[in-house]
Amino acid sequence: MTYRVGLTGGIASGKTAVADIFASLGAGVVDTDRVARDVVAPGQPGLEAVRREFGEGVMRASGELDRRALREVVFADPAARRQLESLLHPLIRARTLEALEQLRTPYAVAVVPLLVETGFGEWVDRVAVVDCPREIQLERLMNRDGIDLDRAESMLSAQAGRQARLAAADDVIDNGGSRESTRRQARRLHALYRRLSERVV
Prior knowledge:
Elements: E1 3-9, H1 15-24, E2 28-31, H2 32-39, H3 45-54, H4 67-76, H5 78-102, E3 107-111, H6 115-118, E4 126-131, H7 134-145, H8 149-157, H9 162-168, E5 171-174, H10 179-199
Parallel strand pairs: 1-3, 1-4, 2-3, 4-5
């Protein structure tokens, strides 16, 4: 079985950029954000489950999920967010594990934003956390999503805290500096993961 690294980090910490570096170095990457979109595509059981639970207000006229509308519902109501997670997380986990099993790369990276919250760490051999200061996260999130500070703060607060993620980490990638610094750290970890993967072959 391919050696598995779980890559996580807070929202707007730079997980995708780091995953892209690993992919460019030859790792197989499965991004659970993309898997999450797949499980609620038209015709998928996940979409029907969301429709039944949250109603037509989270659907587009085309029959697709209105992600923005759903996001507004669940961020305003923790109980609704937990219900959504109970519907979709098992589907996302099963499809992610299936995709990881199909990879034939030296090692695999599973990008899991809610790795700590969902216990996905038990499905990987090692956990890497992309970290940056909270103020940088907030700035990136506001710029990326075009939202104000209060909204950005509430989105960060909906996730596990920075210290909880760091406590779960085997490796930490500091993404608060330059892009080259981040690339250097990723390259060092790539070499480590190659060595570790060779031990389990």
